[in-house]
Amino acid sequence: MRINYTQELEPLGTIAPLSLLREHLDEPFLGGGQMSNVQSMSRPYGDRRQGPHLLRDDLNGTPMEGRGPLQPHLLYIGGEDHHLRIPAMSALRDHGFRVTAAGTGEPAPFEQAGINYRRFHFDRFVSPLADWAAVKSISKILVEVQPDLAQSFDTKPSVFLPLAARSTPGVLVIRTINGRAFLYSSRSPTALTLRPVYRALHKIAARTAAATVFEIGDDLAFFERHGMAGKKPVLIPGAGVDVDGFDRALTSGPSPSQLRKELGLGDAEVVITVTRMTRQKGIPALLKAAAKVHELRPDVRFLLVGPRESEGPLAVTQAEIERHAPYVKAIGPRSDIPSLLSLADVFAFPTEYREGVPRVLLEAALAGVPIVTTTMPGCAEVIRDGWNGFLVPPGAPRMLAAKILDLLGNREKGRVMAGRAAERVRKEFSLENVVACQAALYRDLIDRARGSRFEDDKNTREQRGRTCGAP
After folding, report:
1. What pLDDT sits at residue 190?
2. Could you say which of 3.30.1330.200, 3.90.226.10, 3.40.50.2000, 3.40.640.10 is the CATH number of the domain covering 243-428?
3. What is the tens place of the pLDDT at every residue in 190-235?
4. What distance in Å separates the CA atoms of residue 428 and residue 443, rounded to the nearest whole number?
5. pLDDT tens, position by position, 72-100
6. What's the whole-number average pLDDT of the chain?
7. Signed CA dihedral, 159, 133, 165, 124: sign only
8. Within 13 Å of residue 216, how many CA atoms lie on the same side as its CB?
9. Among residues 210, 186, 401, which one has the least CA distance to residue 291?
């Protein structure tokens, strides 16, 4: 049954070949179910081999019915940009959940936020051995942490987690589909060959997952069409944007004049993009569009913000970018994105990638920057062409340049569309709404697993129904 719980830097990669993973699906990942000494010493809630604490009687034999409400334990699993979900984790704690995070990035941001963090590794690109090692690492984390629920984000973790959870009965697994990534963004021989493997792995994962969350309806329909949606497909649009946090960052960050001086932009009109510098993100098309804009408005500067060196064979080369100097400036990854967006006259997001709802598109809207993006499904969830921004076909530099010039030449039109985009994001894509939907889903899953209801106060029940619809 489909459920609509209505009111994004998606790792690139493909999954290990099916034969390598299926070979071990029915084997314990930790050697016959034995836990290491390290695991046995890290049980803050007693003998963790008994299973998640909300879904069983306690060690003294007190039945669940005889105890008061407990704090559900949630494991949040993602990739190298998992720190971007810290505001969501903090908000979920406010909803009464105990949160542990697992990801591939540095632990410092999680430590600063007071979130317990487990680090593991996987390769974003094709690497069967690394993929299998990642499945075993996640299985080990599940045994050590013993959460009540575990939710995965990004392409590979959303296959790895359900496979790993087969050795940890009782954990309620939630996959999050943040788009269809490399395999459906590329028509390379590798991508075409691995698509059947991807579908087969997701069919296996669907048997373990208690629910599958989709950011966009296009992906939900695709998964249903191919029998991969699982027992409980749920639509929660986007990952949400922390509106208050973004506003605070705008206030506390450097001023546009400071940044213009630092970056040598002077009084130039600025077109900005924030993304990974890869071909699938449409950077070659943007560079061609920049050249066409430069012919008509030579004072315009294009600012490219995001990593390049880490993007492997799909990255645009430094030479490609330098051919468009001095009107294109690549400044690499930055931590002051809200302030950079606020200095821009146009935000161009030329993606050709099948991602979910791009977080940076939501942030650009909050910054009040007029938007030009592509008709890819995740972008079309946010932008309605001609009403709150412009949509152009992916890989169409002439049309992209024309819309950029339109916004630069008609500031009033851009201002009106940017205002509509900001209003829509605050109303429909706020972190508050997304987290309320997630919390409602978690409690519904635990309720079903336990066969009883948590004691929700009246306000919580009303908020659940208003924000997410009936579960």
Report:
1. 80
2. 3.40.50.2000
3. 888 888 888 898 999 999 999 999 999 999 999 999 999 999 999 9
4. 22
5. 999 999 988 899 999 999 999 999 999 99
6. 83
7. negative
8. 19
9. 401
- Determine phi and psi for 326, rounding to 5 degrees: -95, 5
**CATH code, 3-240+431-468:** 3.40.50.2000
Q: Would you kindly state where each structural domain of the chain is located, as residue ranges?
A: 3-240+431-468, 243-428
In tens, the pLDDT along 52-68 reads 655 554 433 334 443 33
